[in-house]
Design brief:
The protein is α+β, with helices and mostly antiparallel strands and about 110 residues long. The chain has a domain of about 70 residues. It has four helices and six strands; from the N terminus they run H-E-H-E-H-E-H-E-E-E. The strands form three sheets. A two-stranded antiparallel ribbon has the order 1-2. The protein is globular, with a radius of gyration of 14 Å. The two termini are about 20 Å apart.
Length: about 110
């Protein structure tokens, strides 16, 4: 069984920005940025939906070893595509962007 490590949100955001992905942060991190801190273990984003941007997002997810968490969506299976991302909805991933227990960044 693999160890669960805390999210390194700053590292994840840096990967997305370095890849040229256009997105907005939503959810608890966005709420905290407006002065109402909330506990969270994930980072929620909404990408700009153009095909080019979604291709950049796909490459960025691949670069950080993102793995889609199991979903009960039989029409798509477990293969993520630009077309599927363009349809919108919620996607959950585990990534290599976690903080190691010794404070070093993994990813």
């Amino acid at each position: 069984m693999s160890e669960t490590r805390p999210l390194a949100a700053d590292q994840l955001l840096a990967h997305l920005l370095d890849a040229g992905v256009d997105f907005i942060v939503i959810g608890a991190f966005a709420v905290a940025a407006h002065g109402a801190p909330r506990a969270t273990t994930d980072l929620d984003i909404t990408p700009e939906p153009s095909a080019d941007n979604l291709q950049r997002l796909m490459r960025a997810l691949d670069a950080i070893d993102a793995r889609m968490l199991p979903l009960d969506i039989p029409e798509h299976g477990e293969i993520l595509s630009v077309e599927w991302l363009a349809e919108g909805g919620n996607f959950q991933f585990s990534t290599a962007c976690t903080a190691a227990s010794d404070g070093a960044w993994v990813g």
